[in-house]
Amino acid sequence: MKNLKYILFTIGGILIYSSLKASKVMANRFTKFTNLESIKLLMLQKALIKAGLKDPVLKFALAQLLFETGRFTAKSKVASENNNYSGIKYLNRTYQKATRGSLAPPNERVSDINSPLNYYAKFATVDDWAKDFVRIISLQRSGNLAGKPVDSISLKTYIDRLALNKYFGSDRNLYLAGTKKYFDMFEY
Length: 188
Known about the structure:
Strand order of the largest sheet: 1-2
Helix content: 40-55%
Oligomer: single chain
Number of domains: 2
Radius of gyration: 19 Å
CATH topology of the largest domain: Lysozyme
Strand content: 5-15%
Shape: globular
Order of helices and strands: HHHHEEHHH
CATH architecture of the largest domain: Orthogonal Bundle
């Protein structure tokens, strides 16, 4: 019995130490960002890992989120108001685990005024958002022979596959340059 307690105590200590060490390592990856940005990056990283995202796509996605939210600034009301860090539209589907959020700007709306696609998805938790984000980047649109974004091994391929899936409407090179700027700031 005494040996069992010692073994359990030792295992518990190792797990706690490993967890603290992993957190410190992850935090060290974001030293070129403000404290608030680092905290948000750690929160999003944790949620994305929990949703099944792994390196190298995890790094691509985090850089993309920094680009899309303007480094989590006031520019991104979608993130702050809807717990939606990537501008996911509301689909009114049970698998999305979201409610109708804020109205999208006119240039992102569809012609049917009553369409749920005219609104952003509002997620109750970051984990709910992360699951839907991973679902979206795991899709391969018909005609996209390049593959799924989630299977990418380079940032360029990731952005190319997002573009082929019509994930974003802006210029592909502009989107790649903006995402790469933040990707290059990570210390991995």
